[in-house]
Write a structure and sequence with these properties.
The radius of gyration is 23 Å and the shape is globular. The chain folds into 3 domains: 198 residues, no CATH class; 142 residues, no CATH class; 36 residues. By secondary structure, it is mainly β. The protein has 3 helices and 25 strands.
């Protein structure tokens, strides 16, 4: 067995407020906001197969599907369009892909994956991120953001002016922004942490059944908690009211209202620390994306491309020009390497069994055979037993 790694790229003009959609089953999805009007797509494939020719044949069947339209770019993996939810198994080979796109920072973005993680940097258009078992990690974002995961965590660092809706089952939520114009955060067993100014005219809510809620307000706030066994603890001067399942803590002028609901978790109001206050432009200047883990630099192991790396590809035709052919509309190869593995048959069997176990749970969830709570429990139980990566 070995691994074929190939990188393909494409460029497409979508304008300053276009739309980008990505739907996959696995792999890492990255998106970064940049100046200009062009979206630049980079897809890195990793195909496990007995030999390189078999891997090349599998790639021809398992390549991502790219649709380019006026002001839009859509990327979808083949198995998302199969009603049976089959994995990428073509001729005994396994195909996985990481998708990275640089887009104008005002682009509307919709990213969906099952077991993959999502990373987003420097965007201010409407954004929606969904994953089942992966994490959602965000930096320097603004605007309307919706993020959801079942067993993964959700984080936002160095946010600007945001309106945020985020929910997870067993993962945690940690968000920090300059100003929250609206906040709706929900988790079942994970904790929630919020740092930033709360707009007094906005609706701010957090719900957690057994997890704690930490609030670091950078302006005056009235924090309310409804809980069965929890209570409010404050590290800043405040006036506490209520009791027996309902508490209210008033900090400063108390203009903004923050409502927390919990069964057994409590609410902590924390004092701001140096570096908590975000100084961010409303229109981000596209900072460098956070570095991704890099493969070993030995000659046989290729270096994975960095997230948001500039992509070269076919240019969008000028106005009035002939539309691109189907071949021109697809990403073209920029790099390819073949790396024989040294796992041995036992190691390869364990790896494939782990992938099959995880995929079976996700497929059952997608078909509606199990609910999100059962899916989260089965994934967590499988991880503890070592059956899922």
């Amino acid at each position: 067995m070995g691994t074929l790694e190939r990188t393909e790229t494409l460029a497409h003009r979508i304008g300053t407020n276009g739309h980008v959609s990505v739907k996959t089953v696995s792999g890492t999805l990255r998106v970064r906001g940049i100046d200009g009007e062009e979206a630049r797509l980079t897809v890195t494939y990793r195909i496990r197969s007995a030999d390189q020719p078999s891997a090349e044949r599998a790639l021809e069947t398992g390549r991502v599907l790219v649709d380019r339209g006026p002001g839009s770019l859509s990327v979808e993996t083949p198995e998302r369009r199969l009603s049976t939810g089959l994995a990428w198994l073509f001729g005994g080979a396994r195909v996985a892909a990481d998708v990275s796109i640089d887009v104008p920072w005002g682009t509307r973005v919709r990213y969906e994956t099952m077991s993959g993680s999502i990373e987003a940097v420097s965007l201010v258009g409407d954004q929606k991120y969904r994953t089942v078992s992966g994490d959602v990690r965000m930096w320097s974002l603004g605007g309307l953001i919706e993020a959801g995961s079942i067993s993964g965590s959700i984080t936002l660092e160095n946010g600007g002016d945001v309106r945020l809706r985020a929910n997870t089952i067993s993962g945690g939520i940690r968000v920090r922004a300059r100003r929250f114009h609206g906040t709706t955060l929900s988790t079942t067993s994970g904790s929630i942490a919020i740092v930033g100014e709360l707009d007094p005219s906005g609706d701010h809510r957090a719900e957690s059944i057994s997890g704690s809620v930490d609030l670091t307000p950078l302006n005056g706030v009235t924090a309310e908690l409804r809980a069965i066994s929890g209570s409010i603890v404050s590290n800043v001067p405040h006036r506490l009211e209520g009791g027996r399942g309902y508490w209210r803590s008033i900090v400063g002028d108390g203009r903004a209202v923050f409502r927390a609901n919990s069964t057994s978790g409590g609410l902590r109001i924390l004092a701001a620390q140096p570096g908590d206050r975000v100084v961010a432009a409303t229109e981000p200047a596209a900072p460098a994306a956070p570095a991704a883990p890099v493969a070993p630099t030995a000659p046989a192991a290729p270096v994975a491309p960095q997230p948001g790396a500039p992509a070269s590809g076919a240019e969008e035709p000028a106005e009035g020009a002939e539309p691109a052919t189907e071949e021109e509309a697809q990403p073209h190869e920029t790099e390819e390497t073949w790396n024989p593995d040294e796992l041995g048959e036992a190691g390869e069997a364990d790896e494939e069994a782990a992938e099959d176990e995880e995929l079976a749970v996700l497929q059952a969830l997608e078909r509606g055979e199990i609910g999100v709570d059962e899916a989260a429990d089965r994934l967590e139980r499988a991880r503890r037993q070592g059956h899922v990566r």
